[in-house]
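TASK: fixed-backbone design
INPUT:
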């Protein structure tokens, strides 16, 4: 085999080896991408679940707050009504004094 043929053969082998290495690199890169995307999807799903929990808790807290506010208003109105009734009774007593 001549020197030129040997160099050509070596160049061909070198190119084949480089192509194989490039193919392996691409496969590894694709695997890394898949793993990365899977992790990102898991993180996104976890964030979605956490957000749903926050929304649910917020709704529950809000309904509790509305119930407390309603109870406060009812208690206030009951006190005001009681005061008004007591005042009416006092006015009636003042208008109609009992005979001695």
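OUTPUT:
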């Amino acid at each position: 085999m001549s020197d030129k043929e040997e160099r050509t053969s070596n160049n061909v082998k070198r190119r084949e080896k480089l192509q194989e290495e490039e193919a392996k690199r691409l496969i590894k890169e694709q695997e890394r991408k898949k793993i990365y995307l899977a992790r990102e999807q898991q993180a996104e799903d976890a964030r979605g679940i956490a957000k749903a929990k926050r929304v649910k808790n917020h709704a529950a807290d809000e309904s509790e707050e509305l119930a407390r506010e309603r109870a406060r208003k009812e208690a206030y109105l009951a006190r005001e009504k009681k005061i008004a009734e007591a005042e009416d009774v006092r006015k009636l007593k003042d208008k109609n004094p009992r005979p001695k």
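COMMENT: The mean pLDDT is 91.
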